[in-house]
Write a structure and sequence with these properties.
Helix content: 40-55%
Subcellular location: Cell membrane
Number of strands: 19
Number of helices: 16
Keywords: Kinase, Phosphoprotein, Transferase, Two-component regulatory system
Radius of gyration: 46 Å
Oligomer: single chain
InterPro entries: GAF-like_dom_sf (IPR029016), HATPase_C_sf (IPR036890), HATPase_dom (IPR003594), His_kinase_dom (IPR005467), HisK_dim/P_dom (IPR003661), HisK_dim/P_sf (IPR036097), Sensor_HK_Regulatory (IPR050736), Sig_transdc_His_kin-like_C (IPR004358)
Distance between the termini: 106 Å
Largest sheet: 7 strands, antiparallel
Shape: elongated
Pfam families: HATPase_c (PF02518), HisKA (PF00512)
GO molecular function: kinase activity
Strand content: 15-25%
Bound molecules: adenosine-5'-diphosphate
Length: 593
């Protein structure tokens, strides 16, 4: 015979049923009810009552036994401390059960106790109406989750060893059921908090802070509904400490004084290397960094808020604002998942505020840059216009002097320098004109023909400079749609540069061909070449090579900038390959017509 055969086969059957239910059911109150009933019906106790620990109070959640008893005690709330300190401390330990014999109870313990109506006898094994038998319900990690109390044992006798052992098994199941429920609750909280953080992360592309903050407050409140969520972003102005704010379920104001003091607290906190949220509670007078601010404390008390979480909105140690979640006395404390979520939310919002502000600065700078660029264009145009008129007059009068036979060396020098200035002003005018130009007047043009005319003009210059100038043209025309005034400027500039920067004895070849949907003009020279560093800025306005040899040759550094702009306006490109001391090749490509 096994030991249970002598006791209660019914109890074991109920236990087996309950074990299955505990692992499969998600309805906690149903399972607890079943366990309480099992203790009554299966083990023969008159009453079994299971309470759940909520904060620091045991709340009676399931009662097995008489309906009258159940009505009396279901939902009853008892401070956990009362049972743990007053009763467990004087109890006998029966394994995980706690038995307090009636004679140990003082008037304090008796008060509020449910007392069954049974007779008191002399039998030392008899159950006395004031005897109490409890079982604290623990999780597998040792956290107290509830309490089970039983009364009226079978035959009104103090339970024997076997009865206690099987009762313990019911107790274990009740503990497990509470633990499972707690885990499920925790898991669903984590999912909820995770969802809120996901919503916050989705706000990261926002362009405005206010609507993003409002959404963030709603998302946080959605995951932490018991309380008030307030978000504030600090302003740069000392007189106006809040730049943006939002709150849920509704926005709540904060005085400038309070915001300033919280800011100072959080900055101090961050400078000390802390970024975790601060938890504070008026209940325990645990008001860490915030104690400095008496008026805040008063406001919280007036609002009924007793505990809260305060987290910086930060990017590393830079505190840009804060978020605070407040709760009332009756609501539970913040658990570790909530603290983590608020911490993460603070960082997410810190990044959001920084990014929106950066984008705003970027946009402002862009507008300023555009304005500056426009101004630069205007300045160049105005100055070159103003220079052009007196220059023309100087050149004209120099020519008159030469014609009149006045020919001291200085007249020649005036003429040459005036011509040089004139080239600079013409280039400046061209540059500002092309920068301001939006549309081209396109016609069908033969690139080969264009290069032939350009070469005509250059051939004499090349001959004078002792350079072999070759034109390599295809048999057929290379048609492109181009502006008949602008595109020739590009070819002229590339070929005249090639001649200009090639020493006596060198060669310049201009080759035209159609390739890959483009008309191409390649200008090759065996000249000075351009260093890799100089190539980087070659097409910027006013850039001239740092090569001293090239610098002795007069130039403005505007030709290539103008040429590239014109090429691009045609949907084309200019590329360069060059080696210092060997020569350069510039290739212009324009889409074929
Ligand atoms: P500019 O010739 O009036 O100075 P460009 O914009 O046409 O202005 O050219 C910019 C600079 O690029 C020149 O000052 C010169 O140093 C360099 N460069 C241009 N073309 C050549 C080339 N074919 N060979 C060597 N250097 C060149």
């Amino acid at each position: 015979m096994t030991r249970f055969d002598t006791f209660n086969a019914d109890g074991v059957r109920r236990l087996y049923e309950i074990i299955r239910r505990v692992s499969s059911s998600t309805d906690l109150s149903e399972v607890l009810e079943e366990i309480a009933q099992g203790v009554v019906e299966g083990l023969g106790f008159g009453v079994a009552a299971i309470s759940r620990l909520e904060g620091d109070t045991f709340v009676m959640a399931a009662v097995g036994g008489d309906d009258e008893v159940r009505d009396q005690i279901l939902g009853r709330r008892t401070p956990a401390e009362q049972i743990i300190k007053r009763e467990f401390s004087i109890a006998d330990h029966w394994g995980i059960l706690r038995f307090v014999p009636h004679e140990r109870l003082g008037p304090e313990q008796i008060e509020g106790l449910w007392v069954p109506e049974i007779e008191v006898t002399d039998d030392p094994d008899a159950w006395h109406p004031l005897d109490t038998l409890y079982a604290p319900l623990y999780s597998s990690t040792g956290a107290l989750l509830g309490n089970m109390a039983v009364d009226l044992p079978p035959d009104n006798k103090i339970p024997n060893q076997q009865q206690r052992e099987i009762l313990e098994m019911f107790v274990v199941q009740a503990g497990l059921a509470l633990e499972n429920a707690q885990r499920r609750q925790q898991l669903s909280r984590q999912v909820q908090l995770g969802e809120a953080l996901k919503q916050l992360a989705l706000l990261s592309g926002s362009t405005e802070i206010d609507p993003a903050l409002e959404k963030a407050a709603d998302a946080i409140h959605g995951a932490m509904p018991l309380g008030q969520v307030s978000l504030r972003v600090f302003g740069d102005n000392v007189d106006d400490p809040v730049d943006h704010s939002a709150g849920a379920p509704a926005p709540v104001g904060a005085s400038d004084h309070v915001v300033r003091s919280l800011r100072a607290d959080l900055v101090r906190h961050a400078e000390a290397g802390h970024q975790r949220p601060l938890t504070f509670s008026l209940r325990d007078d645990d008001f860490p960094a915030l104690t400095s601010e008496a008026s805040l404390r008063e406001r919280l008390v007036a609002g009924g808020w007793t505990h809260g979480l305060l987290a910086p909105m930060n990017v590393d140690r830079d505190v840009l604002g804060y978020l605070v979640v407040l709760r009332e006395d009756s609501h539970p404390d913040f658990d570790a998942d909530e603290v983590d979520a608020v911490h993460e939310a603070g960082r997410e919002l810190g990044r959001l505020v920084r990014d929106v502000r950066l984008r705003r600065t970027e946009r402002r700078l862009l507008v300023e840059l555009r304005e500056l660029d426009r101004y630069k264009g205007e300045l160049i145009a105005t100055i070159s216009h103003e220079l052009k008129t007196p220059l023309t007059s100087i050149i004209g009068h120099t020519e008159l002097l030469e014609e009149a036979g006045v020919q001291p060396a200085s007249v020649g020098a005036i003429g040459r320098n005036a011509a040089r200035l004139d080239r600079l002003v013409t280039n400046l005018l061209n540059y500002s004109r092309i920068q301001g130009r939006r549309e081209l007047e396109r016609v069908r043009l033969d690139l080969a023909e264009l290069c032939r005319s350009s070469a005509e003009m250059l051939r004499i210059q090349a001959e004078n400079a002792g350079i072999t100038f070759t034109l390599d043209l295809p048999d057929r025309p290379v048609w492109v749609n181009a502006d008949a005034e602008e595109l020739p400027r590009v070819v002229d500039n590339l070929s005249s540069n090639a001649v200009k920067y090639t020493p006596r004895g060198g060669t310049v070849v201009v080759e035209v061909r159609a390739a890959g949907g483009h008309g191409e003009v390649a200008v090759r020279d065996t000249g000075l070449g351009i260093s890799t560093q100089d190539q980087v800025h070659l097409f910027s306005a006013f850039h001239r090579s740092t090569n001293p040899e090239a610098l002795t040759i007069p130039g403005t550094g505007l030709g290539l900038a103008i040429a590239r702009t014109i090429a691009e306006m045609h949907g084309g490109t200019i590329e360069v390959t060059s080696e210092l001391g060997t020569g350069s090749t510039f290739v212009l490509r324009v889409p074929l017509a």
